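tool=predict chain=A
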Amino acid sequence: MKLDFTKPLYVLAPLAGYTDLPFRSVVKKFGADFTISEMISSNALVYESKKTMKMLQKSSLEDPYFVQIAGAEEEIVKKAVEKLNTIEGIDGIDLNSGCPVPKVVKQGAGSGLLKDLDRFKRIVETIKKYSNKTYTSVKVRLGFSENIVEQIAVAAQEAGADFITIHGRTRSGGFKAPVDYAAIKRAKESVKIPVIANGDITDYQKAQEVLHLTKADGVMIGRGAIGNPWIFYQLKQGEAFVNEQVKKEIIFEHFRQMLHFYGDYGVVLFRKHLHTYSKGYPGASQFREIINRVTDKDEMEELIERFFRSDAAAA
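tool=predict ok
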């Protein structure tokens, strides 16, 4: 077994458009315990869409590596699992039962599964039964419109999930309602399988606080890692602060991985990351204006080198 739950695990949450292979490999190199693909529709997997197959790729650093799927029909989920069974290097399948996006919910998938716990259980059981991977895990919210997290956690355990990640809001709570860490703690107390806490974990101190409050077996960090991937380095090293040299090293590693994966187009795609990396630095808005026009990798590298020099600490 690759996951050691005897100490807190630090995990990167799947985030569409952000947690692609380059970003995942960077956080893995600098401290994340395992990584998960962006959410993949079971239908897209069954029909082997080109884009989907590229999304399944992982970096050699990603070990352990999970693929997250969404789906609400047992037969389609079974076929998706069988497809994943033929791919080496995947350690687990994670079922998304938390996505609040209307087009996903409308199909009964994502957080839509939380409206029907019998169906939710059948989908988890299907993955568990047909998967040849080491782990079956589930990511959930507290409920759809009401908080029934203990029932959800018990249902996941009964269906054979090896561990569960809980985002501390209902689907109705979107991303704005306060996160209910006490509910995650209650869910943790109601099951024997490990529970990972998720929701509004934006920095090192907050991660420590959430682990203390919930008694969870780990934390999953999503939006808190965007522009701040060194949070995993801090958690792994036990350091509340991270120096500019380490930040710069991580930014450059991310840039290299983008070029390696996307080719020259990686320069353009990296702009949005530089927008978040430069937040709080003197001259950030001018820097953003300049990089928005840059397409040449050497020019971009030089601009990054100049802007993120170790003496230009964030204001």
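Residues 244-262 form the longest helix (19 residues). The chain has two domains: 9-237, 244-307.
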